[in-house]
Amino acid sequence: MDVLIVYGSQFGTTEHLANVMAAALSPTHTVYVRHARETDRISGREIDLLIVGAPTQMHGLRLLVRPFLAGLAEHGFREVAAAAFDTRGAGSVEQTGSAAASIARRLERAGCRLVKPPEGFIVTDLKGPLAEGEEARAVAWVLDVAAAATPLGVASV
Predict the structure, then answer these.
(1) What is the CATH number of the domain that holds 21?
(2) What is the rounded CA–CA span in Å between residue 131 and residue 90?
């Protein structure tokens, strides 16, 4: 399965998490990791799974991946399996907001097929690092996302 992980990152924590997820998937999938600024020439026609992540800033309203998400349908991502994640401070979503929820809504509006609910990973401070256990939780989550995106009866390559 060909997987594209697109991220926005201001202090590097979300980028780090995207790379952790890519490393977990790469033994059984072809994985591409791109900053949202580097996606203007990417087509969804060759992608089986799209994962998009960004930090939660301004309660989820400042979305560093917004330009990429705005062009999904035009770039052939309609019907592509997708999932969303964010990095955010500790606390309830009502307190912190959720970039992942905003990303998931935009993925669905573009015609992507969400395979799992949006997920947030906790950072200990504005500039990181991830809280203890979050990398392992992210690995488990992304493997679950990939399993949900793999059509029944089709083995991973």
Answers:
(1) 3.40.50.360
(2) 9
Vertex 104 angle, CA 101 and 107, to 5°: 155
Domain-embedded: residue 92 = yes
- For the entire predicted model, the pTM comes to 0.93
Neighbours of 3 (CB within 10 A): 24
Q: Return the residue matching tokens 């924590």.
A: 13
Work out how many domains the chain is built from and give that number: 1
154 occurs within a structural domain: no
Q: What is the pLDDT along the chain (157 residues), one digit of tens a residue?
A: 999 999 999 899 999 999 999 999 999 999 999 999 999 888 898 899 999 999 998 655 567 899 999 989 899 999 999 999 999 989 888 888 899 999 999 999 999 999 999 999 999 988 889 999 999 999 999 999 999 998 754 444 4
CB 47 within 8 A of CB 77: yes
CA 23, CA 30: separation in Å to the nearest integer? 10
**Residue 40, C-beta contacts closer than 8 angstroms, at least 6 positions apart:** 71
CB atoms within 10 A of CB 155: 7
Domain that holds residue 12: 2-149
